[in-house]
User: What shape does this take?
Amino acid sequence: MISGGIMNIKSCRPLAGWVVFTLSLFLFFSSPAKSENIQTEINPINTTNSINPTHSYAAQKIVLDPERQFQFAEHYFQKGEYYRAIGEYERFLYFFPLSDKVELARYKIGLSFLKGEQYKEAIQAFNALIEDYKNTEYAFKSYLKISKAYVLLKRYDMALTSIKNLITIAPDQEIRDETYYQGGWVYLEMGLWGKAQKYFEKISFQNREKYNLSQILMGLDRKLPLKRKNPTTAGMLSIIPGAGHLYCERKRDALISFLLNGAMIYAAYEAFDHDLDVLGGIITFFELGFYSGNIYSAVSSAHKYNRDEKNKFLNYLKKNTKIEISLGKPNESKSLLLLCKFSF
Assistant: This one.
């Protein structure tokens, strides 16, 4: 029994050792000082935050600076990313409504719409600027940009309205001369050469060299009157299929029209001559369509010829008399010294 009891005690010694070891670990880790030290070693950042919890949030604050915000918008404008530029200019207006660059930012928004081919939005932006700032430099520029936007929309009457309004309120000869210059180009786009010439001639003598006026007037005298084709004449000549196209210098179309209509007329004649009245009637029905189409096409060709001649003349003037002008001041930012060529 004794030996058996001794054997049982010996067999329990390993178990007792594990119990003592487990209790020691529990007491060690349950100590507050040790627990804090261990937590510090594992996550020192959290300890710092617990001491000063507002420190990390303060480091994340972003301070908006008006000059840097404006230059950021200018960066997108210079890159040609006009829609992003608009967003950044509007952000500038929202955060810095008292800045001395607010008017400029609004002008650049309108300019971004114009360059981004959003012409109606550009007109709205420029009109709003004029309404708020009246007779300032950027308001005068806005009149010219509104005119340009309307030209690009082919609304020449509205473009001229903007031009005439600016001529009425222009405070000095420099602005009036530039307005006359752009108004002359609007009339050229309309094909009203005489009125364009009158507008160009209203530019003051001291600025005529600046606007290359002698070359423009010389080009008008040299190229006018333009070669034109009368649409009525073209239609009347088309009684003979192909003659109207030949008048408009479209020889290939003239040959096709003559052969096609000639063949159809001959086929109808042969059908009626052989008493094939139904077939002759069908051929005649289709021939009437081809014949009327021949007349309509000749009239359209005359209009197209005149339009092409006008465009050739305008391209000649723009290529040989185009000038670069700028309303920017030397102390303005580089983005303001835009070269306005008025080549619509």
Summary: The radius of gyration is 42 Å. Residues 277-321 form the longest helix (45 residues). The chain has two domains: 66-227, 231-321. Confidence is low (pLDDT under 50) at residues 1-7, 33-51, 53-58, 326-344.
